[in-house]
Design brief:
Length: about 425
């Protein structure tokens, strides 16, 4: 603004605002975002002062005392790392630690994998499973532009939003048979057949989130045949290897079968749940290639993508996983601890089921014990789920998903009584 003397006078931001001019430095144009459906529930749980409150919204393992767990094998690995004077805090390369990546490949594809023997898998260390999904989406955007990623309906909500934010087209395929609380195989196969040849199909490697319903071996084989005939690329999201059945090999059945049968694959891998390394952000993104030369080119491009996203991944979590996977004793201890976590969850399913039967809660509850992995898709309606939160202080998702990992001997009866109440009265 000019003064009478013709010199510039400073203009206050409030004056600009009253003149209807928005100053960019005020960021008044930024609307408040809604809370994240999963992380937002935990924020509400933290703020709740009711002593009965229970958090079964977030997929994080709890001990039977309701406490977060650091695995013994992880503590031991950390001690080894701390005592190792040859380690330093220098940067990793963009693709991460190559020894770690090779161990992760074996865990996914198996020790005897022909693909690995032939050097046909490109793998980069990532910021856990979410980072792997985002890296994969960036890769699709550059090297398969316009190709849609087909995602199960329902799914872990971030699958859709990652594709959205990365600018990758995505579409749903049918997965859930609401009436029978089971897999809608016919609907799924129809949608995979109707997708254009060479589409990308996101599959949950084990312990489907949120339904807890995985295809049987026979159903996986049928899915594979359709994907093979259509030339689809299958993207296994492996966030729960070992959590579904307690066995790493069983939970890798579909991925290994598809790999053996020569289907082109993407794999996003997370060590959040099975190693309890949630906040350490440890994972990988892999893809299968036609030749070992292509693996080199693909890795060089992934280096560039990563360089411009976050430069290079953190070291500590990958060092933990590397130490455990390469030490036979620690590896066995980890497998035992993984089995113990999955058994505790299975036990809680049984206790919750028995209690609902004892209360004669209306409806069938067999799905609670049939479903596997961290979650139970209870079948509660959005209104009933809301009442669980608002009336009973049991924080679960609006789609009826309960994290069984948060159910304990101490709260299971309270949860069952609350379910009984909302089913009868809401
Ligand atoms: C299906 C699925 N994929 C990926 C992830 C990624 O989790 P994180 O980024 O913590 O590894 C999760 C976490 O809940 C998940 O459920």
């Amino acid at each position: 603004m000019l003064s009478r003397a013709g010199t510039m006078m400073p203009v206050s931001r409030s004056l600009l605002r009253t003149m209807g001019v928005r100053s960019i430095g005020d960021w008044a144009n930024v609307p408040a975002a809604p809370l994240d459906p999963i992380l937002g529930m935990s924020q509400r749980f933290q703020a709740d002062t009711d002593p009965r409150k229970v958090n079964v919204s977030i997929g994080a393992y709890r001990t039977d005392e309701g406490k977060p767990l650091v695995l013994n094998c992880v503590k031991k690995a950390e001690k080894i790392i701390l005592d190792n004077t040859t380690l330093n805090k220098e940067y990793l390369p963009q693709r991460g630690d190559v020894t770690y990546a090779a161990l992760c490949q074996k865990m996914l594809f198996g020790e005897d994998s022909q693909l690995l023997k032939d050097g046909l898998v490109a793998t980069a260390q990532t910021l856990s499973g979410t980072g792997a999904l985002r890296l994969g989406a960036e890769f699709v955007k550059r090297y398969a532009p316009g190709t849609a990623v087909y995602i199960s309906s329902p799914t872990w909500g971030t699958h859709n939003s990652i594709m959205d934010q990365a600018g990758v087209p995505y579409k749903p395929y049918q997965y859930w048979d609401k009436e029978n609380r089971n897999l809608n195989l016919a609907g799924m196969l129809d949608d995979l057949k109707a997708a254009p040849d060479g589409s990308i199909i996101m599959l949950h490697a084990a312990a489907h989130n949120p339904t807890g319903v995985d295809p049987t071996k026979d159903q996986w084989d049928q899915i594979m045949e359709v994907c093979k005939a259509k030339g689809h690329v299958c993207w296994f999201d492996s966030a729960y290897q070992g959590f579904a059945t307690g066995c790493l090999e069983k939970d890798a059945y579909a991925l290994r079968k598809f790999a053996e049968n020569g289907l082109p694959l993407f794999v996003s891998q997370s060590f959040a749940k099975n190693f309890g390394l949630y906040g350490e952000r440890v994972g990988t993104f892999s893809l299968t290639c036609g030749s070992s030369d292509t693996v080199k080119s693909v890795m060089s491009q992934m280096d560039i993508i990563i360089r411009n996203l976050y430069s290079n991944p953190p070291k500590h979590g990958a060092n933990i996983v590397k130490t455990v996977l390469s030490d036979p004793e620690l590896y066995q201890e980890w497998r035992d601890e993984l089995l113990a976590m999955s058994v505790r969850i299975q036990d809680m399913r049984k206790v919750l089921f028995d209690e609902l039967i004892r209360l004669e809660t209306p409806g069938s509850w067999k799905h609670v014990t049939d479903q596997i992995g961290m979650f139970s898709f209870t079948g509660l309606t959005p209104e009933q789920s809301k009442a669980m939160v608002e009336k009973h202080h049991i924080y679960m998702l609006g789609n009826g998903r309960v994290s069984m990992a948060g159910v304990t001997s101490g709260n299971v009866k309270y949860i069952a009584a609350a379910i009984d109440d909302v089913v009868r009265n809401v």
